[in-house]
Specification:
about 75% helix; about 120 residues
Length: about 120
């Protein structure tokens, strides 16, 4: 039996719907949080060793690079929480239709961008 389906091997031409992008981004932020926690746990553990190590971590956290890492970690956490709530609502049987799923995905991504900017303002100012 020969399959007559067209095969598209050029992945750059595929346009994913907003719900698919939101779901993939939720998975990516979960992986990013795993790697970000390595830095966070190191900072917590090292800062508890002595007063000098606490002062070192405190000094390190005031640098622009550390604030950028902290902002990235916070924004990843924010998106993962928002996406997780969206998935929980979908697990309860809501927002599963094409229109409502697209709307909820766009709302989550838009809210994430707003909260990411607010987190940046909170960290740097």
């Amino acid at each position: 039996m020969k399959k007559q389906r067209p095969v598209n091997l050029d992945l750059s031409t595929i346009s994913l719907p907003a719900a698919a992008k939101a779901s993939i981004l939720h998975r990516v932020t979960g992986v990013a949080m795993f790697f970000a926690l390595v830095f966070v746990i190191w900072a917590w553990a090292y800062s508890l060793q002595s007063q000098a190590s606490f002062d070192y971590v405190q000094l390190l956290m005031t640098s622009h690079f550390a604030k950028f890492i902290a902002w990235g970690t916070i924004t990843v956490l924010i998106y993962h929480l928002l996406g997780g709530v969206r998935h929980l609502v979908m697990d309860m049987g809501h927002w599963e239709e094409l229109k409502s799923g697209t709307l909820s995905a766009n709302i989550v991504m838009g809210l994430w961008l707003v909260l990411a900017v607010l987190a940046g303002v909170w960290l740097w100012f």
